[in-house]
Amino acid sequence: MNIPEPVKHYIDVWNRRDGAGIVACFTSDGVYSDAASGGILHGEAIATYAKALWAAFPDLHFETGRIAANGDSIFAVEWRMRGTNSGSFQGLPPTNRDVDVAGVDIVELNGGKLTSVTGYFDSRAVPEQLGLQVVVQPNNIGSFAFGTSTSYQTGRTTKPGAFSITKLEARSEQEVQQIKEFSRQIAIEMSKMEGFISLIGMTVGRRQMTVAAWGSPENPRQMAYRGTHERAMRKFFGPELAASGWTSVWIPDRINATWARCPTCARMLNIDKVGDRCSCGAAQPEPVAYW
User: Fold this and answer.
1) Helix/strand/coil (H, E, C) string of the chain?
2) What are 76-91's pLDDT values in tens digits?
């Protein structure tokens, strides 16, 4: 069957990147939701959601396929979304990868306007096509809380002389993304600082922690009043960033030997002490990072 004119116009304004036009397609109490919208959206929130997609995929385009009707007011519309990720997506830098995602919208009409649009598609498709990890796990089980982590490695194998630890509690999911963006920029700047070795960042709910390895306890002082870290501190001590937080520098009491397995005889070697070769004659494994 032919696509109804209100539905056709709705797809057209999406492809024209007209946020106000999308909102105008709905009745005053019309709602929108899909697998990535985070719930039911109404009014200007629908346009805000669309604008975030256009920012991430400036060439975003929808093509419609088959359509099925249930009476005169409910329609199932197949669509295919294509675009290139040349803008920030969920706070991440552009990947410049293409996405091609198929889905179905269930559209309800009343008086020539949309009262409801519910989109169905594989929510893993976009992040997977962008080369992003999709982590499925519980938020909490009893006293255990679960999250994600990030490692930034410089390749330096220096034995750490200190660890800096920063913890922030965000006030919202939006603030979690803001802190992550600050952390990415800070990590890039830290990689050029004297004594920096590596770091691990962790996010559990709205709690975010960064543990960085340094050559000496004096090295972390370089972050305090320069670059992105300084800007983040101003926001933290103003009204703009986080509910709470603390920083610290820890000095190791003991760092034991680094062990690595010989790829030839499978013997475990103390690579801090062994010479250029294993006792079997094979070259010893390359040094590995402590952190």
Assistant:
1) CCCCHHHHHHHHHHHCCCHHHHHHCEEEEEEEECCCCCCCEECHHHHHHHHHHHHHCCCCEEEEEEEEEECCCEEEEEEEEEEECCCCECCECCCCCEEEEEEEEEEEEECCEEEEEEEEECCCHHHHHCCCCCCCCCCEECCEECCEEEEEECCCCCCCCEEEEEEEECCCHHHHHHHHHHHHHHHHHHCCCCCEEEEEEEEECCEEEEEEEECCCCHHHHHCCCHHHHHHHHHHHCCCCCCEEEEEEECCCCCCCCEEECCCCCCEEECCCCCCECCCCCECCCCCCCC
2) 999 999 999 999 887 7
